[in-house]
Amino acid sequence: MGEEAESRVSVWPILILTMMVYYSVAPFWLVALIGIWYFSLRYLEEAGHLERWNSDRVLGIILMARTNRGKSILEYVSRNRKFWRGFGELSIWICFLFMAAVVYLISASLIMAIRSPPQEAIPATDILLIPGVTSYVPFWWPIIALVIALLIHEYSHGIQARAHGMEVRNFGLLLVGPLPVGAFAEPEHLDMTIAPRREKIRLFAAGPSINILFSYVVLILLTSTATGLVAEHSGVHGVAIVEDSAAHEAGLLPYETITYIDGYEIVDREGFSEAMEQFSAGDMVLLTVLSSPVEGEARESRQLNVTLGDRFEVVNEYCEGNSSCIEMNGSPSPNDPYLGIYTSDGNMGILRFSSVVEEYGVFSPFMLLSFPFTFDGHMMLPEERAMLGAGDGAVASALGTEGMLMLFDFLFWLLWINFLLGFANLIPVIPFDGGHIVKDTSHSLLSRLLKGENPLRVEMLANKFSYYTTILVLSIVIIPLVIPLFN
After folding, report:
1. Would you state the pLDDT for residue 3?
2. Residue 330 C-beta-side C-alpha neighbours within 13 Å
3. Helix (H) or strand (E) holding 38
4. Residue 15 confidence (pLDDT)
5. Are 358 and 219 contacting, i.e. CB atoms less than 8 angstroms apart?
6. Cα atoms in the 13 Å half-sphere on the side-chain side of 33
7. Do 220 and 353 share a structural domain?
8. Contacts of 24 (CB under 8 A, 6+ apart)
9. What's the pLDDT at 122?
10. Torsion angle, CA of 68/74/76/79, rounded to 10 degrees?
């Protein structure tokens, strides 16, 4: 029976890799690398090397690497036990609040997938969120942020363990090749077994909550850094040029910056609107523009003669006489000038970030999660980034433009990774922290409801509830991902 079980454990990773290739949800090179890693781990395990290195192979392809380092620091940090127990209690409520948000979002994604089934499957590389492999997640800043996020996550678990008198045997990383995919603090098994349920819940809640709270600290630092980045050149640029418009016919290109209109200096969008009010449809004006930004290259100035169009005619043609549409487009009067560009300031990327933080407040990390998807792995468009420079502050002057942009990138990914790690860990599925919280909480509630009942029956009911919750949530997560495979 033991040999049959070992055979099943050994074969399943190969079957999964084969299915990934068959359904074309992962590139062959990625599957090949995972396969090489899997067989290398098998060899090291059978040769006894992993045991000598105090490591284990888990779930087929994950290396569980242990270390005793950091325990002395843990003892020092966790010595104020009253404070950390209070933090553990606060963590429980933070986790329940964000767990409700997790369940809401994954349920909403299921409903959307059923109503409007996606036509294409999401590549496995994008589902796994691997730095440097996932299309919208670059390598260096996210991998550094991930190591920091995993460190504080597991240290927080360890602090709670010590604050409640549990021994911590080891810390460690979960690795797939050179990439960390998780971390762990390993309390003594007996201590965890006999610990009260409330203390266990505090321990599991501490990891996700510290990541979430830390992400808000980073958000403050990121907002402060954003104020140190300003547009290098005053003026407005056209993020898009309307086809067959006056600007298009004159040869204006996207992201060229308009600095003067017939001698009127343009500082920002408000100044652009005021300058345009001086003209009428049919007027010929001289635009002075800076060429589209290219990182590392100086921008060149040129001049364009433009014959302005009639905004009244353009809007009425577009709206086909619809009064609501005309009103939404500013209800222009006859002979109002029309250039034909969608304008923004030179620091549009920073303004967009700042407006999200200002408008959504404590909910802004949720909104910022979408930025790498929208901007192909960046916080803003490369053209917007190339328009930025360091401001006049002491830090900005010391770091310079490149230093400020590097700091901004690092803080953004530190926020993104920490918030996502804390949030995703609250999916109510074992082995995530959220699954353990649900299991121990359900056991505590059942113990109160079934007072006097056989403890073994209460334990069995709690395990069943946890099991069915895991199956239900996994189904909600997986169904939207597999629907496109059957279209």
Report:
1. 38
2. 12
3. helix 28-46
4. 52
5. no
6. 11
7. yes
8. none
9. 73
10. -130
- Could you tell me where the DSSP H helices lie in 164-185? none
Q: Are residues 351 and 479 in the same domain?
A: yes
Which of 253, 237, 267, 254 has the alpha carbon at shortest distance from 348? 237
Last-in-domain residue among 19, 46, 64:
64
Q: How many residues are recorded in the chain?
A: 487
Residue 161 structure tokens: 């363990």
Cα–chain center distance at 246? 40
Q: Is 416 exposed, middle or buried (CB count within 10 Å of its CB: 0-12, 13-18, 19+)?
A: buried
- Copy the structure tokens of residue 262: 């017939």
pTM listed for this prediction:
0.82
What is the DSSP pairing of strand 337-338 with strand 55-58? unpaired
Note whether 391 and 246 are same-domain residues. Answer: no
Residue type, 35: G
The model's confidence at residue 4, banded by pLDDT at 50, 70 and 90, is very low
CATH number at residue 310: 2.30.42.10
Pairwise CA distance, residues 183 & 62, whole Å: 11
Distance separating alpha carbons of residues 375 and 349, to the nearest angstrom: 10
Query: Which one of 311, 345, 379 terminates a domain?
Result: 345
> If we measure between CA atoms, which residue out of 416, 415, 398 comes closest to residue 228?
398
The single-letter code of the amino acid at 40 is S
Domain span at residue 23 reads 1-64
Residues 298, 387 within the same domain: no
Residues 354, 473: one domain? yes
Q: How far is CA 25 from CA 13, 28, 123, 133, in A?
A: 15, 9, 5, 13
The total number of structural domains that make up the chain: 3
Tokens of 184: 């762990």
pLDDT grade, residue 190 (50/70/90)?
Answer: confident
Under DSSP, is residue 338 helix (H, G, I), strand (E, B) or coil? Answer: strand
Type of residue found at 132: G
Cα 325 to Cα 96: distance, rounded to the nearest angstrom: 44
- Let me know whether 46 and 77 are in one domain: no
445 SS3 class: helix
**DSSP state at residue 185:** E
| 341 CA to centre of own chain | 32
Report whether 125 contacts 137 (CB < 8 A).
no
